[in-house]
C-alpha cells in the first residue's frame, strides 16, 4: 500500500513504487499446496555478522552530541578549494568517519540519524518499563519496542507469523478468487511488491479530492531496469536473485528441486511485469502517470481480476474514481493472470509474502534477506544491531507518538522560531529572484509569485498529532504488532478517499533527518530532526547556517519550480500555467544542468543518469543561490568579521558543502545509479559551485580551474 512514511518530494516519485527483479524463464512447476511454514537454514547460509571489536557496542544517549555547522576538523586544507571543493570541505570528515560495517553509505545526515536513533533508544527503553503513569502513546511505543527487542520470542516463533496467510494462499481454489485474497493481503504488506500497489492520493487535476490510486509493482529487485539490461553485472544479479528466492522458499519448507523451479517461476512473472513498467525517468512526468478511470474502465482493462472483490476486501466497496498510473502494466498483469497457472500464481504470492515479512521473522529469514539485499547488492558488511532496527520500526509505525517525546526533549520553541524566520527569509529572496528573472515573462511571473505566496510551510512537527488509539500494540508478539500497524496505516490512507484533504498532515516523522516538498499540497516540510546541529546550529553565525540549512530550505522551495514541480499550480493541481515561450526557455536552461551532470561518472564506467536526477540537481543549484541571497538580505548593514581564518562568504560556502560530507560503497553507488534521483554527494557540491560565480570570487579562483566555468557556460535558471 502507499504509506505516508514513503512520501517523497514530487508527485512522480510519490507514486513511483516500482521495485524490480530478474529475467530468466523456465518451465513453471505444477500446481501444489503450500508447504508448512518451518524455519530451516539455507544450504549455503550467509549470516549477518555481529558487531566486531572495531565497532564497539553502542549505548543509548541521554543527550544529543554537538557538532558545529562549520566543522574545521572536517576540512582538508591541503586540497585547493578551486580544484575540488567537496574534498577541501569534507576530506577530514571522510578520514575520521569511515563507513561503518552496517552501512552502505555514511554521511553527515546518516550520522545525525544514528545519533537521533541512539537518543530515541534511551527514550524507548524508559517508555517500555511498565508503569501506571504511562500515557497511551508512551505505552504503545514502549511496548512495541520491548516486543521487538525480545529476540528469543521472535526466534521461537520462526515462520509461524506467516502461517495464516500462507494457508490462505494455499486455499486459493481458482484464479478469479485472487481479488478478494489480495484485497486482504495488501492491507498488511508495506510495499507494492505483491503484484501491484493500491492506495489513495490527491487527484492530480483536482487536489481538493482524494481518489484511489492503482500503481505498478510486483517486483523484488530494486528497479525494472535490473530485469531488462543485458550487461554481465545485470545477468549476475538476476542469477543471484533467483538463488535468493530459492533459499527463502526453502526456509518455508520447500524441497530444493521445487524451490529451484519456483525461483524460475518468480523470475519469469516479474520479468514480464518489469518490461511493462515505466522507467523511473518516465515516472518523473506526471502526465505519464495520470490516467483517471472509473472502476468499470479498470475492470475492462483487467477482466480476469475481480475488482469488486478486491475493493470490498480493502474496505472500499463503493470506490469508483481510480488513477491507474500505468495502464500498460495492468494490461500485462491481465496477461499474467490469464497465462499463468493457479499454482504459479500461488508460488509468486508465497514468495512476495515471505519477502515482505522476512525482516520481522527469525534469524534464518533475516540473515538471508540481508545476504542478498544488503551484503550482495550494496556490499554492507554487517547487519544493523537489533536496537537500531527496532527504533526505525517504531519511528515508521508510531512515528508521531514517538515524535511527541522527541520534540519535547530536542526541539525547543526558540529553535522552531529561528528556523521559521530563516524560511521566511528564503521565501523573500525567492520572490526577489522571481521578480528580477530576465528570461521569464510577466504572465508566467505572476503565476509563479501566486504559487510562492500560496506555499505552506511546516516546521518541526505537526500542529495536530496523529491518534493511534485504535492501533492494538501488545507487549508480546512482535510480528503481530508490525502486521497490525501496517494494516492501521493502510486503512487510514484508504479512509481518506472522498473526504476533505488534511493539509496539516505530515509525510515524515519529527525525528527524521530529511525534508520534502509536496506539489499536490504545495507545501514544504522540515522535520525537527533536520533542524539540529550540525545542520542548523544556533550557536554559530548566520553564514554557515544559511549555507547549510538555508540551502536545504531553498532546495525544497525550488522543487516547486523544477521540471516536475513547475507543472503544478498554486493549488497543487496539474495545470500548465507557463507561456510557451517561457516553458521553452526553462527547458533550455534545465538542459544546461542535465548536460553538465550527464558527464559525471558514478562508479566504474557508469555515467550519471542526469534525466533521473534533473529535479534534484536543479533544486541543489537554485536552493544555494536563493540561500545566498537570503543570507545577504539577513545581514545587510551589519559589520561581518572574519572567523577561524575565513571570510563570511567563505563560511557560507563551507557550511553549504559540509551538509554533504560522506562516502558510499561502490556497490551501493551502482544501485543508486539506477534508483536514486539524487546525484552522488561530491557532485551535489562541486556541480553546484561551478555555476555560482560568487564562489569563485570568495576563494579567488582563476579561470580554467576545475571549479570555475567559462561565463557563457554557467547554468542559470533561478
Structural features:
718 residues, alpha+beta, Neutral endopeptidase, domain 2, four-stranded mixed beta sheet, three-stranded mixed beta sheet, disordered N terminus
Description of the molecule:
The chain has a four-stranded mixed β-sheet. Strands 6-8-7 form a three-stranded mixed β-sheet, covered by helices on one side. It has helices spanning 11-15, 85-96, 108-127, 136-149, 151-157, 163-170, 178-185, 225-228, 232-251, 256-275, 295-301, 307-314, 327-339, 342-357, 363-378, 386-397, 399-410, 413-436, 442-454, 478-494, 542-559, 580-597, 610-634, 648-658, 666-675, 681-689, 693-698; strands at 105-107, 196-203, 206-216, 292-294, 321-324, 456-460, 516-518, 523-527, 601-603, 606-607, 662-664. The two termini are 36 Å apart. The longest helix is centred in the last third of the chain and has 25 residues, at 610-634. The chain is α+β, with helices and mostly antiparallel strands. Helix content is 49%, strand content 7%. It has two domains: 4-39 and 158-383, Neutral endopeptidase, domain 2 (Orthogonal Bundle), CATH 1.10.1380.10; 399-713, Collagenase (Catalytic Domain).
Amino acid at each position: 500500500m502507499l504509506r505516508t512514511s514513503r512520501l517523497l518530494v514530487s508527485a512522480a516519485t510519490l507514486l513511483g513504487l516500482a521495485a524490480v527483479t530478474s529475467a530468466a524463464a523456465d518451465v513453471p512447476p505444477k500446481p501444489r499446496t503450500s508447504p508448512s511454514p518451518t524455519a530451516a537454514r539455507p544450504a549455503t547460509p550467509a549470516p549477518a555478522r555481529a558487531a566486531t571489536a572495531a565497532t564497539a557496542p553502542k549505548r543509548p544517549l541521554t543527550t544529543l552530541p554537538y557538532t558545529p555547522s562549520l566543522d574545521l576538523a572536517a576540512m582538508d586544507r591541503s586540497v585547493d578549494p578551486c580544484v575540488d571543493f567537496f574534498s577541501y570541505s569534507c576530506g577530514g570528515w571522510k578520514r575520521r568517519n569511515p563507513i561503518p560495517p552496517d552501512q552502505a553509505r555514511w554521511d553527515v545526515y546518516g550520522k545525525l540519524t544514528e545519533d537521533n536513533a541512539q537518543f530515541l533508544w534511551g527514550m524507548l527503553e524508559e517508555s517500555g518499563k511498565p508503569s501506571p503513569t504511562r500515557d497511551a502513546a508512551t505505552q504503545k511505543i514502549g511496548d512495541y519496542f520491548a516486543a521487538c527487542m525480545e529476540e528469543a520470542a521472535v526466534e521461537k516463533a520462526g515462520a509461524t507469523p506467516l502461517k495464516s496467510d500462507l494457508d490462505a494462499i494455499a486455499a486459493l481454489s481458482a484464479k478469479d478468487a485472487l481479488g478478494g485474497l489480495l484485497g486482504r493481503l495488501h492491507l498488511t504488506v508495506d510495499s507494492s511488491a505483491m503484484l501491484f500497489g493500491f492506495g489513495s492520493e490527491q487527484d492530480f487535476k483536482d487536489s481538493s479530492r482524494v481518489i484511489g490510486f492503482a500503481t505498478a509493482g510486483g517486483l523484488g529487485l530494486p528497479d525494472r531496469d535490473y530485469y531488462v539490461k543485458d550487461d554481465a553485472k545485470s545477468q549476475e544479479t538476476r542469477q543471484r536473485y533467483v538463488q535468493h528466492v530459492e533459499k527463502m522458499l526453502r526456509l518455508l519448507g520447500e524441497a530444493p528441486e521445487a524451490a529451484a523451479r519456483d525461483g524460475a517461476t518468480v523470475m519469469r512473472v516479474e520479468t514480464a511485469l518489469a518490461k511493462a513498467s515505466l522507467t523511473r525517468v518516465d515516472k518523473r512526468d506526471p502526465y505519464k502517470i495520470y490516467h483517471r478511470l472509473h472502476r468499470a474502465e479498470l475492470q475492462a482493462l483487467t477482466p480476469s481480476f475481480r475488482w469488486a472483490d478486491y475493493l470490498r476486501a480493502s474496505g472500499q466497496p463503493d470506490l469508483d474514481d481510480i488513477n491507474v498510473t500505468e495502464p500498460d502494466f495492468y494490461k500485462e498483469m491481465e496477461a499474467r493472470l490469464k497465462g499463468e497457472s493457479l499454482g504459479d500464481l500461488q508460488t509468486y504470492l508465497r514468495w512476495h509474502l515471505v519477502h515482505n515479512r522476512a525482516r520481522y521473522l527469525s534469524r534464518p529469514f533475516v540473515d538471508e534477506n540481508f545476504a542478498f539485499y544488503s551484503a550482495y547488492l550494496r556490499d554492507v558488511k554487517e547487519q544493523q544491531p537489533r536496537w537500531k532496527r527496532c527504533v526505525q520500526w517504531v519511528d515508521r509505525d508510531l512515528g508521531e507518538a514517538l515524535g511527541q517525546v522527541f520534540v519535547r526533549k530536542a526541539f525547543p520553541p526558540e529553535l522552531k522560531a529561528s528556523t521559521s524566520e530563516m524560511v521566511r527569509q528564503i521565501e523573500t529572496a525567492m520572490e526577489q529572484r522571481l521578480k528580477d528573472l530576465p528570461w521569464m515573462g510577466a504572465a508566467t511571473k505572476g503565476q509563479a509569485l501566486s504559487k510562492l505566496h500560496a506555499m505552506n510551510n511546516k516546521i518541526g512537527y505537526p500542529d495536530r498529532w496523529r491518534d493511534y488509539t485504535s492501533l492494538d500494540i501488545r507487549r508480546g508478539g512482535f510480528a503481530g504488532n508490525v502486521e497490525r500497524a501496517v494494516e492501521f496505516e493502510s486503512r487510514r490512507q484508504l479512509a481518506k478517499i472522498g473526504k476533505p484533504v488534511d493539509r496539516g498532515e505530515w509525510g515524515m516523522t519529527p525525528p527524521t533527518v530529511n525534508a520534502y516538498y509536496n506539489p499536490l499540497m504545495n507545501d514544504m516540510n522540515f522535520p525537527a530532526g533536520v533542524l539540529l546541529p550540525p545542520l542548523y546550529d544556533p550557536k554559530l553565525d548566520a553564514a554557515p547556517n544559511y549555507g547549510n540549512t538555508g540551502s536545504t530550505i531553498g532546495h525544497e522551495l525550488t522543487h516547486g519550480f523544477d521540471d516536475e514541480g513547475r507543472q503544478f499550480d498554486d493549488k497543487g493541481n496539474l495545470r500548465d500555467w507557463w507561456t510557451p515561450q517561457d516553458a521553452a526557455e526553462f527547458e533550455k536552461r534545465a538542459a544546461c544542468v542535465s548536460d553538465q551532470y550527464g558527464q559525471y561518472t558514478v562508479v566504474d564506467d557508469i555515467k550519471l543518469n542526469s534525466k533521473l536526477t534533473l529535479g534534484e540537481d536543479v533544486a541543489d543549484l537554485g536552493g544555494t543561490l536563493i540561500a545566498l541571497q537570503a543570507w545577504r538580505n539577513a545581514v545587510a548593514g551589519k559589520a561581518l568579521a572574519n572567523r577561524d581564518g575565513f571570510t563570511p562568504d567563505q563560511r557560507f560556502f563551507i557550511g553549504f558543502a559540509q551538509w554533504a560530507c560522506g562516502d558510499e560503497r561502490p556497490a551501493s553507488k551502482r544501485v543508486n545509479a539506477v534508483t536514486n534521483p539524487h546525484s552522488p554527494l561530491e557532485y551535489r557540491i562541486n556541480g553546484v559551485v561551478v555555476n555560482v560565480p560568487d564562489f569563485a570570487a570568495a576563494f579567488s579562483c582563476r579561470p580554467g580551474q576545475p571549479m570555475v566555468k567559462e561565463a557563457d557556460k554557467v547554468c542559470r535558471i533561478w
